[in-house]
Amino acid sequence: MSDEDEQHVLAIDTIKEFSNYYSKKIGCLDNSLIEYIPDFLIISPPRTGSTWLSENLAIHPSILITSRELRYFSRYWKYFDINWYLRQFEKGVGRKKGEKSPEYAALPIQAINFIRSINPNLKLIFLMRDPIERAWSHTKHNYVFREANFFAYDDDFDSIPDSKFIENFIHDWPLVCGDYLGSLKRWLEIFPKEQFFIGFYESIKNDPKNLLADIFDFLGVKREIDWGKFRISEMFMEGVRKEPPENFKQHLREIYNERTIDLAKFLKEQFDIDIPNEWRNTLNYSNEYAQKHRNSDIFQKFDEQYLIDLLNMENRYMTISVVVDRTTRKSREKLKMHRSCIIWFTGLSASGKSTIANELDYILSTKGIHSYILDGDAIRIGLNKDLGYTKNDRSENIRRIGEVAKLFMDAGIVVITTFISPFKEDREIVRNLVEKGEFIEVYTKCPISICQERDPKGLYKRAIIGEIKNFTGISHPYEEPLNPEILLETDRLSISESVNKIITHIVPIIKMSDKSE
User: Fold this and answer.
1) What pTM was computed for the model?
2) What domains can you pick out in the chain, each with its CATH number?
3) CA–CA separation, 185 vs 267, rounded Å?
Protein backbone atom coordinates (compact mmCIF):
# COMPACT_ATOMS: atom_id res chain seq x y z
CA MET A 1 0.00 0.00 0.00
CA SER A 2 1.40 3.39 -0.96
CA ASP A 3 1.71 6.28 1.49
CA GLU A 4 -0.91 8.10 -0.58
CA ASP A 5 -3.36 5.21 -0.17
CA GLU A 6 -2.72 5.04 3.56
CA GLN A 7 -3.42 8.73 3.97
CA HIS A 8 -6.58 8.34 1.92
CA VAL A 9 -7.90 5.62 4.20
CA LEU A 10 -7.55 7.90 7.16
CA ALA A 11 -9.36 10.70 5.36
CA ILE A 12 -12.58 8.96 4.29
CA ASP A 13 -15.11 11.07 6.12
CA THR A 14 -18.13 11.28 3.81
CA ILE A 15 -20.39 8.85 2.00
CA LYS A 16 -19.36 10.24 -1.37
CA GLU A 17 -15.66 9.90 -0.59
CA PHE A 18 -16.20 6.33 0.53
CA SER A 19 -18.14 5.48 -2.64
CA ASN A 20 -15.44 6.91 -4.90
CA TYR A 21 -12.59 5.23 -3.03
CA TYR A 22 -14.42 1.89 -2.84
CA SER A 23 -15.00 1.99 -6.60
CA LYS A 24 -11.38 2.88 -7.28
CA LYS A 25 -9.96 0.02 -5.21
CA ILE A 26 -12.37 -2.63 -6.55
CA GLY A 27 -11.42 -1.71 -10.11
CA CYS A 28 -12.84 -2.95 -13.40
CA LEU A 29 -14.09 -6.44 -14.03
CA ASP A 30 -12.12 -8.51 -16.55
CA ASN A 31 -14.68 -9.75 -19.10
CA SER A 32 -12.83 -13.05 -19.41
CA LEU A 33 -13.80 -13.80 -15.79
CA ILE A 34 -17.55 -13.24 -16.15
CA GLU A 35 -18.28 -16.96 -15.81
CA TYR A 36 -16.65 -16.85 -12.36
CA ILE A 37 -19.17 -14.36 -10.96
CA PRO A 38 -20.86 -15.89 -7.88
CA ASP A 39 -24.53 -16.84 -8.01
CA PHE A 40 -25.30 -16.44 -4.32
CA LEU A 41 -24.07 -15.00 -1.02
CA ILE A 42 -24.84 -16.10 2.51
CA ILE A 43 -25.17 -12.76 4.30
CA SER A 44 -26.46 -14.09 7.62
CA PRO A 45 -25.05 -12.34 10.70
CA PRO A 46 -22.50 -14.18 12.86
CA ARG A 47 -23.71 -17.08 15.03
CA THR A 48 -26.92 -17.74 13.05
CA GLY A 49 -26.05 -21.08 11.43
CA SER A 50 -24.10 -19.98 8.36
CA THR A 51 -21.25 -22.41 9.09
CA TRP A 52 -23.70 -25.33 9.26
CA LEU A 53 -25.27 -24.16 6.02
CA SER A 54 -22.02 -23.66 4.10
CA GLU A 55 -20.67 -27.00 5.30
CA ASN A 56 -23.72 -28.79 3.94
CA LEU A 57 -23.99 -26.76 0.73
CA ALA A 58 -20.39 -27.76 -0.04
CA ILE A 59 -21.47 -31.42 -0.16
CA HIS A 60 -23.99 -30.89 -2.96
CA PRO A 61 -22.37 -31.85 -6.30
CA SER A 62 -23.96 -28.89 -8.11
CA ILE A 63 -22.73 -26.23 -5.65
CA LEU A 64 -19.33 -24.68 -5.02
CA ILE A 65 -18.95 -22.61 -1.88
CA THR A 66 -15.57 -21.24 -0.82
CA SER A 67 -13.95 -23.11 2.06
CA ARG A 68 -13.41 -19.94 4.10
CA GLU A 69 -15.03 -16.56 4.55
CA LEU A 70 -13.68 -14.30 1.80
CA ARG A 71 -14.87 -11.05 3.45
CA TYR A 72 -13.95 -9.29 0.24
CA PHE A 73 -16.58 -6.55 0.28
CA SER A 74 -16.10 -5.85 3.98
CA ARG A 75 -12.30 -6.08 4.32
CA TYR A 76 -10.14 -7.22 1.46
CA TRP A 77 -11.45 -4.89 -1.27
CA LYS A 78 -8.72 -2.57 -0.06
CA TYR A 79 -5.92 -4.96 -0.98
CA PHE A 80 -7.20 -6.94 -3.97
CA ASP A 81 -9.23 -5.95 -7.01
CA ILE A 82 -12.52 -7.56 -8.04
CA ASN A 83 -10.78 -9.97 -10.39
CA TRP A 84 -8.86 -11.52 -7.50
CA TYR A 85 -12.22 -12.09 -5.82
CA LEU A 86 -13.75 -13.70 -8.90
CA ARG A 87 -10.83 -16.10 -9.30
CA GLN A 88 -11.78 -17.67 -5.96
CA PHE A 89 -14.76 -19.19 -7.80
CA GLU A 90 -12.83 -20.53 -10.80
CA LYS A 91 -13.43 -24.18 -9.91
CA GLY A 92 -17.17 -23.59 -9.74
CA VAL A 93 -17.79 -22.98 -13.44
CA GLY A 94 -20.87 -24.98 -14.42
CA ARG A 95 -22.13 -25.09 -10.83
CA LYS A 96 -23.87 -22.66 -8.51
CA LYS A 97 -21.11 -20.62 -6.89
CA GLY A 98 -21.16 -18.64 -3.68
CA GLU A 99 -19.59 -17.73 -0.37
CA LYS A 100 -20.55 -16.92 3.19
CA SER A 101 -19.23 -13.87 4.99
CA PRO A 102 -21.26 -12.92 8.08
CA GLU A 103 -19.67 -9.45 8.08
CA TYR A 104 -21.73 -8.64 4.98
CA ALA A 105 -24.80 -8.28 7.21
CA ALA A 106 -23.30 -4.99 8.42
CA LEU A 107 -22.32 -3.58 5.02
CA PRO A 108 -23.39 -0.01 4.21
CA ILE A 109 -25.70 0.56 1.24
CA GLN A 110 -22.85 1.92 -0.86
CA ALA A 111 -21.02 -1.42 -0.67
CA ILE A 112 -24.21 -3.39 -1.34
CA ASN A 113 -24.79 -1.31 -4.45
CA PHE A 114 -21.39 -2.33 -5.81
CA ILE A 115 -22.24 -5.97 -5.22
CA ARG A 116 -25.41 -5.59 -7.28
CA SER A 117 -23.47 -3.95 -10.11
CA ILE A 118 -21.44 -7.16 -10.39
CA ASN A 119 -24.47 -9.47 -10.46
CA PRO A 120 -27.96 -7.91 -10.44
CA ASN A 121 -29.47 -11.43 -10.23
CA LEU A 122 -27.47 -12.47 -7.18
CA LYS A 123 -29.39 -14.64 -4.71
CA LEU A 124 -29.09 -13.84 -1.02
CA ILE A 125 -29.51 -16.17 1.94
CA PHE A 126 -30.26 -14.54 5.29
CA LEU A 127 -30.65 -16.70 8.39
CA MET A 128 -31.70 -15.34 11.78
CA ARG A 129 -31.67 -16.70 15.31
CA ASP A 130 -33.46 -15.82 18.50
CA PRO A 131 -31.71 -12.51 19.36
CA ILE A 132 -30.84 -13.52 22.90
CA GLU A 133 -29.47 -16.90 21.85
CA ARG A 134 -27.45 -15.29 19.06
CA ALA A 135 -26.10 -12.65 21.43
CA TRP A 136 -25.14 -15.27 24.00
CA SER A 137 -23.41 -17.36 21.35
CA HIS A 138 -21.55 -14.26 20.13
CA THR A 139 -20.46 -13.47 23.68
CA LYS A 140 -19.14 -17.01 24.17
CA HIS A 141 -17.32 -16.74 20.85
CA ASN A 142 -15.73 -13.46 21.98
CA TYR A 143 -14.52 -15.20 25.12
CA VAL A 144 -13.04 -18.18 23.25
CA PHE A 145 -11.24 -15.95 20.74
CA ARG A 146 -10.47 -13.23 23.34
CA GLU A 147 -12.21 -10.48 21.41
CA ALA A 148 -13.86 -7.21 22.53
CA ASN A 149 -13.73 -6.86 26.33
CA PHE A 150 -12.34 -10.41 26.72
CA PHE A 151 -9.05 -9.43 25.10
CA ALA A 152 -6.18 -10.75 27.29
CA TYR A 153 -8.75 -12.10 29.78
CA ASP A 154 -7.21 -15.00 31.71
CA ASP A 155 -9.96 -16.36 33.98
CA ASP A 156 -11.92 -19.48 33.06
CA PHE A 157 -15.43 -19.18 31.68
CA ASP A 158 -17.26 -20.33 34.80
CA SER A 159 -15.73 -17.54 36.87
CA ILE A 160 -16.86 -14.68 34.61
CA PRO A 161 -19.21 -12.31 36.47
CA ASP A 162 -22.55 -11.30 34.90
CA SER A 163 -21.31 -7.72 34.58
CA LYS A 164 -18.54 -8.89 32.25
CA PHE A 165 -21.06 -10.53 29.91
CA ILE A 166 -23.23 -7.41 29.91
CA GLU A 167 -20.18 -5.24 29.27
CA ASN A 168 -19.52 -7.31 26.14
CA PHE A 169 -22.67 -5.87 24.64
CA ILE A 170 -21.62 -2.29 25.17
CA HIS A 171 -19.49 -2.85 22.06
CA ASP A 172 -21.29 -1.78 18.89
CA TRP A 173 -20.19 -4.70 16.72
CA PRO A 174 -22.25 -7.36 18.56
CA LEU A 175 -25.24 -4.97 18.48
CA VAL A 176 -24.88 -4.32 14.76
CA CYS A 177 -24.68 -8.07 14.15
CA GLY A 178 -27.95 -8.60 15.99
CA ASP A 179 -29.82 -5.86 14.13
CA TYR A 180 -31.60 -8.14 11.63
CA LEU A 181 -34.11 -5.46 10.70
CA GLY A 182 -31.46 -2.89 9.84
CA SER A 183 -29.51 -5.43 7.75
CA LEU A 184 -32.57 -6.55 5.80
CA LYS A 185 -33.71 -3.00 5.09
CA ARG A 186 -30.30 -2.04 3.69
CA TRP A 187 -30.05 -5.07 1.43
CA LEU A 188 -33.69 -4.75 0.32
CA GLU A 189 -33.08 -1.18 -0.69
CA ILE A 190 -30.76 -2.50 -3.43
CA PHE A 191 -32.01 -6.04 -4.22
CA PRO A 192 -35.64 -7.11 -4.85
CA LYS A 193 -37.19 -9.34 -2.19
CA GLU A 194 -37.69 -12.15 -4.73
CA GLN A 195 -33.92 -12.72 -4.59
CA PHE A 196 -33.92 -13.40 -0.83
CA PHE A 197 -34.22 -16.61 1.11
CA ILE A 198 -35.19 -15.86 4.70
CA GLY A 199 -34.69 -18.68 7.18
CA PHE A 200 -34.17 -19.37 10.87
CA TYR A 201 -31.50 -21.08 12.93
CA GLU A 202 -34.25 -22.82 14.86
CA SER A 203 -35.06 -24.83 11.71
CA ILE A 204 -31.55 -26.30 11.81
CA LYS A 205 -32.47 -27.91 15.11
CA ASN A 206 -36.11 -28.71 14.36
CA ASP A 207 -36.22 -29.60 10.66
CA PRO A 208 -32.76 -29.37 9.06
CA LYS A 209 -33.50 -31.55 6.04
CA ASN A 210 -36.45 -29.46 4.87
CA LEU A 211 -34.55 -26.21 5.47
CA LEU A 212 -31.67 -27.43 3.33
CA ALA A 213 -34.03 -28.77 0.65
CA ASP A 214 -35.81 -25.41 0.49
CA ILE A 215 -32.47 -23.68 -0.01
CA PHE A 216 -31.59 -26.13 -2.78
CA ASP A 217 -34.88 -25.19 -4.48
CA PHE A 218 -34.07 -21.50 -4.01
CA LEU A 219 -30.64 -21.94 -5.62
CA GLY A 220 -32.04 -24.03 -8.45
CA VAL A 221 -30.29 -27.33 -7.73
CA LYS A 222 -31.77 -30.79 -7.21
CA ARG A 223 -33.15 -31.71 -3.82
CA GLU A 224 -33.36 -35.41 -4.74
CA ILE A 225 -29.90 -36.39 -3.54
CA ASP A 226 -28.18 -38.89 -1.26
CA TRP A 227 -28.97 -37.34 2.10
CA GLY A 228 -26.71 -39.83 3.86
CA LYS A 229 -23.69 -37.80 2.75
CA PHE A 230 -24.86 -34.61 4.44
CA ARG A 231 -24.03 -33.46 7.98
CA ILE A 232 -27.47 -32.09 8.78
CA SER A 233 -27.57 -33.41 12.34
CA GLU A 234 -24.18 -31.95 13.30
CA MET A 235 -23.70 -28.61 14.99
CA PHE A 236 -20.54 -26.67 14.18
CA MET A 237 -18.57 -24.33 16.42
CA GLU A 238 -20.94 -24.85 19.34
CA GLY A 239 -18.61 -23.18 21.81
CA VAL A 240 -18.88 -23.33 25.58
CA ARG A 241 -21.98 -25.14 26.81
CA LYS A 242 -23.60 -22.97 29.44
CA GLU A 243 -26.94 -21.21 29.81
CA PRO A 244 -26.88 -17.39 29.83
CA PRO A 245 -27.20 -15.74 33.25
CA GLU A 246 -30.66 -14.32 33.93
CA ASN A 247 -29.28 -10.79 34.39
CA PHE A 248 -27.69 -11.01 30.95
CA LYS A 249 -30.94 -12.26 29.40
CA GLN A 250 -32.88 -9.43 30.99
CA HIS A 251 -30.35 -6.91 29.70
CA LEU A 252 -30.79 -8.28 26.18
CA ARG A 253 -34.59 -8.31 26.43
CA GLU A 254 -34.50 -4.60 27.10
CA ILE A 255 -32.27 -4.07 24.05
CA TYR A 256 -34.01 -6.31 21.54
CA ASN A 257 -37.68 -6.56 22.48
CA GLU A 258 -39.01 -3.52 20.65
CA ARG A 259 -36.73 -4.11 17.68
CA THR A 260 -37.94 -7.69 17.41
CA ILE A 261 -41.58 -6.60 17.37
CA ASP A 262 -40.75 -4.26 14.48
CA LEU A 263 -38.88 -7.08 12.75
CA ALA A 264 -41.85 -9.43 13.09
CA LYS A 265 -44.14 -6.88 11.44
CA PHE A 266 -41.62 -6.28 8.66
CA LEU A 267 -41.19 -10.00 7.91
CA LYS A 268 -44.93 -10.50 7.79
CA GLU A 269 -45.48 -7.54 5.46
CA GLN A 270 -42.54 -8.22 3.13
CA PHE A 271 -42.25 -12.02 3.12
CA ASP A 272 -45.44 -13.28 4.79
CA ILE A 273 -43.48 -15.27 7.37
CA ASP A 274 -43.65 -15.39 11.15
CA ILE A 275 -40.78 -15.47 13.62
CA PRO A 276 -40.35 -18.84 15.40
CA ASN A 277 -42.24 -19.51 18.62
CA GLU A 278 -38.94 -19.94 20.45
CA TRP A 279 -38.29 -16.22 20.08
CA ARG A 280 -41.54 -15.26 21.80
CA ASN A 281 -40.77 -17.35 24.87
CA THR A 282 -37.23 -16.04 25.28
CA LEU A 283 -38.04 -12.39 24.71
CA ASN A 284 -41.21 -12.15 26.83
CA TYR A 285 -42.75 -11.05 23.58
CA SER A 286 -45.59 -8.64 24.24
CA ASN A 287 -46.53 -5.09 23.32
CA GLU A 288 -47.00 -4.23 27.00
CA TYR A 289 -43.42 -5.29 27.80
CA ALA A 290 -42.10 -3.38 24.82
CA GLN A 291 -43.75 -0.16 25.91
CA LYS A 292 -41.94 -0.38 29.24
CA HIS A 293 -38.57 -1.10 27.68
CA ARG A 294 -38.10 1.05 24.60
CA ASN A 295 -34.56 1.15 23.24
CA SER A 296 -35.01 2.29 19.65
CA ASP A 297 -32.28 4.91 20.00
CA ILE A 298 -29.66 2.17 20.22
CA PHE A 299 -30.29 1.08 16.64
CA GLN A 300 -31.02 4.49 15.13
CA LYS A 301 -27.33 5.39 15.27
CA PHE A 302 -26.46 2.55 12.86
CA ASP A 303 -27.04 4.74 9.80
CA GLU A 304 -25.07 4.75 6.53
CA GLN A 305 -22.37 7.10 7.80
CA TYR A 306 -21.94 5.07 10.98
CA LEU A 307 -21.49 1.80 9.04
CA ILE A 308 -18.98 3.44 6.71
CA ASP A 309 -17.06 4.66 9.75
CA LEU A 310 -17.17 1.13 11.15
CA LEU A 311 -15.74 -0.21 7.89
CA ASN A 312 -13.15 2.56 7.82
CA MET A 313 -12.05 1.72 11.36
CA GLU A 314 -11.44 -1.87 10.23
CA ASN A 315 -9.34 -0.57 7.35
CA ARG A 316 -7.28 1.58 9.70
CA TYR A 317 -6.56 -1.47 11.81
CA MET A 318 -5.50 -3.46 8.75
CA THR A 319 -3.34 -0.58 7.53
CA ILE A 320 -1.37 -0.69 10.77
CA SER A 321 -1.12 -4.48 10.55
CA VAL A 322 0.26 -4.76 7.02
CA VAL A 323 2.83 -1.95 7.08
CA VAL A 324 6.01 -3.92 7.79
CA ASP A 325 9.76 -3.38 7.57
CA ARG A 326 11.10 -6.53 5.89
CA THR A 327 9.86 -10.03 5.14
CA THR A 328 10.47 -11.72 8.47
CA ARG A 329 8.40 -14.06 10.59
CA LYS A 330 7.09 -11.11 12.57
CA SER A 331 6.10 -9.27 9.40
CA ARG A 332 4.32 -12.35 8.05
CA GLU A 333 2.44 -12.70 11.31
CA LYS A 334 1.38 -9.05 11.07
CA LEU A 335 0.14 -9.64 7.55
CA LYS A 336 -1.89 -12.67 8.66
CA MET A 337 -2.96 -10.86 11.85
CA HIS A 338 -2.12 -13.77 14.14
CA ARG A 339 0.98 -15.43 15.58
CA SER A 340 2.26 -18.81 14.48
CA CYS A 341 2.89 -21.90 16.59
CA ILE A 342 3.19 -25.69 16.40
CA ILE A 343 0.26 -27.80 17.58
CA TRP A 344 1.81 -31.25 17.94
CA PHE A 345 -0.65 -34.13 18.18
CA THR A 346 0.77 -37.31 19.67
CA GLY A 347 -0.96 -40.56 20.58
CA LEU A 348 -1.57 -44.14 19.51
CA SER A 349 -2.85 -45.05 16.07
CA ALA A 350 -6.67 -44.59 15.94
CA SER A 351 -6.65 -42.36 19.05
CA GLY A 352 -8.25 -39.52 17.06
CA LYS A 353 -5.27 -37.35 16.06
CA SER A 354 -6.14 -36.82 12.40
CA THR A 355 -9.90 -36.56 12.95
CA ILE A 356 -9.57 -33.83 15.57
CA ALA A 357 -6.76 -32.08 13.67
CA ASN A 358 -8.84 -31.83 10.51
CA GLU A 359 -11.80 -30.36 12.37
CA LEU A 360 -9.48 -27.93 14.16
CA ASP A 361 -7.94 -26.88 10.84
CA TYR A 362 -11.42 -26.20 9.44
CA ILE A 363 -12.55 -24.16 12.45
CA LEU A 364 -9.36 -22.08 12.38
CA SER A 365 -9.84 -21.40 8.65
CA THR A 366 -13.35 -20.06 9.26
CA LYS A 367 -11.80 -17.53 11.65
CA GLY A 368 -9.25 -16.35 9.11
CA ILE A 369 -6.38 -18.14 10.86
CA HIS A 370 -3.82 -19.59 8.45
CA SER A 371 -3.14 -23.18 9.44
CA TYR A 372 -1.74 -26.29 7.75
CA ILE A 373 -1.71 -29.98 8.66
CA LEU A 374 1.44 -32.06 8.36
CA ASP A 375 0.01 -35.57 8.33
CA GLY A 376 2.03 -38.65 9.19
CA ASP A 377 0.78 -40.80 6.30
CA ALA A 378 1.32 -38.05 3.71
CA ILE A 379 4.86 -37.36 4.92
CA ARG A 380 5.74 -41.05 4.90
CA ILE A 381 4.95 -41.44 1.21
CA GLY A 382 6.87 -38.31 0.22
CA LEU A 383 9.53 -36.55 2.23
CA ASN A 384 10.27 -39.54 4.48
CA LYS A 385 9.62 -42.45 2.12
CA ASP A 386 13.21 -43.63 2.69
CA LEU A 387 12.57 -44.27 6.40
CA GLY A 388 11.31 -47.41 8.08
CA TYR A 389 9.98 -48.04 11.59
CA THR A 390 13.09 -48.84 13.60
CA LYS A 391 13.80 -46.63 16.60
CA ASN A 392 16.44 -44.67 14.70
CA ASP A 393 14.18 -44.20 11.67
CA ARG A 394 11.29 -43.06 13.84
CA SER A 395 13.53 -40.49 15.51
CA GLU A 396 14.79 -39.23 12.15
CA ASN A 397 11.18 -39.02 10.93
CA ILE A 398 10.27 -36.74 13.81
CA ARG A 399 13.48 -34.68 13.49
CA ARG A 400 12.71 -33.89 9.84
CA ILE A 401 9.10 -33.04 10.60
CA GLY A 402 10.23 -30.73 13.39
CA GLU A 403 12.44 -28.81 10.99
CA VAL A 404 9.65 -28.57 8.42
CA ALA A 405 7.21 -27.39 11.08
CA LYS A 406 9.68 -24.71 12.12
CA LEU A 407 9.83 -23.46 8.51
CA PHE A 408 6.03 -23.27 8.40
CA MET A 409 6.12 -21.29 11.64
CA ASP A 410 8.57 -18.87 10.05
CA ALA A 411 5.99 -18.38 7.29
CA GLY A 412 3.52 -17.20 9.94
CA ILE A 413 1.40 -20.36 9.83
CA VAL A 414 -0.19 -22.30 12.67
CA VAL A 415 1.27 -25.77 12.03
CA ILE A 416 -0.77 -28.80 13.02
CA THR A 417 1.14 -32.10 13.06
CA THR A 418 -0.37 -35.57 13.49
CA PHE A 419 2.32 -38.14 14.29
CA ILE A 420 2.36 -40.97 16.77
CA SER A 421 5.84 -39.70 17.77
CA PRO A 422 6.22 -42.38 20.45
CA PHE A 423 9.41 -41.18 22.11
CA LYS A 424 9.47 -38.35 24.64
CA GLU A 425 13.06 -37.45 23.75
CA ASP A 426 12.16 -36.88 20.10
CA ARG A 427 9.22 -34.65 21.00
CA GLU A 428 11.44 -32.62 23.33
CA ILE A 429 13.96 -32.09 20.52
CA VAL A 430 11.21 -30.51 18.41
CA ARG A 431 10.00 -28.45 21.38
CA ASN A 432 13.50 -27.02 21.79
CA LEU A 433 13.61 -25.91 18.14
CA VAL A 434 11.21 -23.05 18.94
CA GLU A 435 10.69 -20.52 21.68
CA LYS A 436 8.99 -21.37 24.95
CA GLY A 437 5.22 -21.52 24.55
CA GLU A 438 5.30 -21.98 20.76
CA PHE A 439 5.20 -25.81 20.89
CA ILE A 440 1.81 -27.05 22.08
CA GLU A 441 1.75 -30.77 22.76
CA VAL A 442 -1.70 -32.33 22.38
CA TYR A 443 -1.94 -35.85 23.76
CA THR A 444 -4.88 -37.83 22.38
CA LYS A 445 -5.09 -40.30 25.21
CA CYS A 446 -7.20 -43.36 24.48
CA PRO A 447 -7.15 -46.93 25.88
CA ILE A 448 -5.52 -49.28 23.40
CA SER A 449 -8.60 -51.51 23.56
CA ILE A 450 -10.71 -48.64 22.17
CA CYS A 451 -8.09 -47.93 19.49
CA GLN A 452 -8.21 -51.58 18.47
CA GLU A 453 -12.00 -51.44 18.23
CA ARG A 454 -11.79 -48.39 15.97
CA ASP A 455 -8.82 -49.58 13.86
CA PRO A 456 -10.01 -47.82 10.64
CA LYS A 457 -7.03 -49.11 8.62
CA GLY A 458 -6.96 -52.62 10.09
CA LEU A 459 -3.42 -52.06 11.33
CA TYR A 460 -3.86 -53.51 14.82
CA LYS A 461 -5.20 -56.78 13.44
CA ARG A 462 -2.22 -57.08 11.12
CA ALA A 463 0.21 -56.18 13.91
CA ILE A 464 -1.27 -58.74 16.30
CA ILE A 465 -0.82 -61.57 13.78
CA GLY A 466 2.70 -60.39 13.00
CA GLU A 467 2.20 -58.90 9.54
CA ILE A 468 3.42 -55.48 10.77
CA LYS A 469 6.60 -55.31 12.80
CA ASN A 470 7.47 -52.61 15.35
CA PHE A 471 3.88 -51.41 15.63
CA THR A 472 3.41 -48.86 18.42
CA GLY A 473 1.32 -50.21 21.28
CA ILE A 474 1.65 -53.84 20.20
CA SER A 475 5.29 -54.65 19.49
CA HIS A 476 6.82 -51.22 20.01
CA PRO A 477 6.61 -48.91 23.06
CA TYR A 478 4.82 -45.58 23.37
CA GLU A 479 6.07 -43.10 25.95
CA GLU A 480 3.15 -41.07 27.25
CA PRO A 481 3.67 -37.30 27.67
CA LEU A 482 4.02 -36.45 31.34
CA ASN A 483 2.87 -32.83 31.13
CA PRO A 484 1.27 -32.11 27.75
CA GLU A 485 -0.14 -28.64 27.22
CA ILE A 486 -3.47 -30.24 26.27
CA LEU A 487 -4.76 -33.65 27.31
CA LEU A 488 -7.66 -35.04 25.28
CA GLU A 489 -9.25 -38.22 26.60
CA THR A 490 -10.75 -39.13 23.26
CA ASP A 491 -12.74 -42.08 24.58
CA ARG A 492 -14.75 -39.55 26.62
CA LEU A 493 -14.65 -36.28 24.70
CA SER A 494 -16.49 -35.64 21.44
CA ILE A 495 -14.68 -34.15 18.44
CA SER A 496 -16.35 -30.79 19.07
CA GLU A 497 -15.41 -30.79 22.77
CA SER A 498 -11.82 -31.69 21.91
CA VAL A 499 -11.53 -28.90 19.33
CA ASN A 500 -13.06 -26.35 21.71
CA LYS A 501 -10.54 -27.32 24.38
CA ILE A 502 -7.65 -26.74 21.96
CA ILE A 503 -9.02 -23.42 20.70
CA THR A 504 -9.53 -22.12 24.23
CA HIS A 505 -5.87 -22.88 24.92
CA ILE A 506 -4.28 -21.54 21.73
CA VAL A 507 -6.23 -18.33 21.08
CA PRO A 508 -4.40 -16.28 23.76
CA ILE A 509 -1.12 -17.58 22.29
CA ILE A 510 -1.74 -16.74 18.63
CA LYS A 511 -3.83 -13.59 19.05
CA MET A 512 -2.03 -10.36 18.27
CA SER A 513 -2.63 -7.17 20.19
CA ASP A 514 -4.57 -4.29 18.70
CA LYS A 515 -1.30 -2.38 18.34
CA SER A 516 1.32 -3.06 15.72
CA GLU A 517 4.24 -4.89 17.27
Assistant:
1) 0.63
2) 3-305 (3.40.50.300), 329-510 (3.40.50.300)
3) 11
